[in-house]
Design a protein that fits this description.
- It is a single chain.
- It is built from 7 helices and no strands.
- The chain has a domain of 94 residues.
- The chain is flat.
- α1 packs parallel to α4.
- It is 54% helix and 0% strand.
- It is mostly helical.
Length: 181
């Protein structure tokens, strides 16, 4: 439905500021730090003490979080550019490999690069076998055996299986540790 002459539709209200929007001093510090400046330079630009700027730029600070997001975006953009160039790089390597004018060394290096990036590079050297474990020290074995024997029940040897199973004859005591008996 058309509006009558002289009437206009007002523009929509401005959207609210995003939750992550930094106050102006912190934004100024962010700009300096994002461009590679120092905390002291960021503090001077924001008009605050360098300790304040350092606190803002720390990993838990608002500026630090925004810097982390910016770095993540930059890494993602760089990775996307590399991925976009990967096909061209493979084509260049294929051209070198197939160029009869290229030296044999250049063709081999190109082929090796393609194989390596495809995960088909040279096999790793087989690992050396692990050395056989050292035989136990007889004195240590005896010391351990003595420690075990010290806690065996003082029972007749008529029924060793019962002692092993924990069903020793009446009158046998089974100490449970060094504090007993």
């Amino acid at each position: 439905m058309p509006l009558p002459d002289g009437y206009t539709v007002p523009p929509p209200p401005a959207p609210p500021a995003p939750a992550g929007l930094l106050p102006l001093p912190e934004l100024r510090a962010f700009e300096v730090l994002a461009a590679g400046g120092t905390v002291a330079e960021a503090a001077a630009r924001a008009g605050v003490h360098r300790n304040t700027a350092a606190r803002w730029a720390a990993p838990g600070g608002r500026v630090g979080r925004e810097l982390d997001l910016l770095r993540a975006e930059q890494v993602a953009a760089a990775r996307a550019r590399f991925v976009a160039l990967a096909g061209l790089a493979v084509d260049v390597l294929a051209d070198v490999m197939n160029d009869p004018e290229a030296s044999a060394a250049a063709r081999v290096r190109a082929a090796v690069a393609v194989l390596d990036r495809a995960g088909l590079g040279p096999c790793a050297e087989p690992a050396a076998p692990e050395p056989a474990p050292e035989p136990p020290d007889p004195l240590r074995v005896l010391a351990r055996l003595a420690a075990v024997l010290r806690y065996l029940p003082d029972c007749p040897e008529d029924d060793p299986e019962a002692v092993i199973q924990g069903a020793a004859p009446a009158g046998c005591s089974f100490p449970v540790g060094p504090d007993t008996g």
